[in-house]
C-alpha cells in the first residue's frame, strides 16, 4: 500500500493534491484537503460520479488509488 496522491477538483479551477496513506479514512483526507484549501473539513463533500464518500470508511475500501481525481463540493 503506502503513500498515494489524491487530486481533489472543485470544478471552479482549484485542484488540491494531497499525499496520504491508503488506510486513512475519507475524514482524514478531508482534513488534509482543508489544510491546503482553507475550507472547513465539515463543509467538504467528496464524490466520484454519483457516489458520495462517507467519512469513516478508508480510501483502500473505496479503492481510491494513486493519482485518482475526486470531485469536491
Automatic annotation (TrEMBL):
Record Pfam families: ubiquitin
Domain of life per record: Eukaryota
Residue span, Ubiquitin-like domain: 4-73
Database matches in PROSITE patterns: UBIQUITIN_2 (PS50053)
InterPro entries assigned: Hub1/Ubl5, Ubiquitin-like_dom, Ubiquitin-like_domsf
UniProt keyword Cell membrane, yes or no: no
Keyword annotations of the record: Ubl conjugation pathway
PANTHER family referenced in this protein's UniProt entry, alphabetically: UBIQUITIN-LIKE PROTEIN 5
Record-given protein name: Ubiquitin-like modifier HUB1
Organism: Wallemia ichthyophaga (strain EXF-994 / CBS 113033)
Amino acid at each position: 500500500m503506502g503513500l498515494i496522491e489524491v487530486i481533489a477538483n472543485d470544478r471552479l479551477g482549484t485542484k488540491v493534491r494531497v499525499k496520504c496513506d491508503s488506510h486513512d479514512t475519507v475524514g482524514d483526507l478531508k482534513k488534509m484537503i482543508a489544510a491546503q484549501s482553507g475550507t472547513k473539513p465539515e463543509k467538504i463533500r467528496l464524490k466520484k460520479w454519483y457516489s458520495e464518500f462517507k467519512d469513516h470508511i478508508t480510501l483502500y475500501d473505496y479503492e481510491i488509488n494513486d493519482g485518482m481525481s475526486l470531485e469536491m463540493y
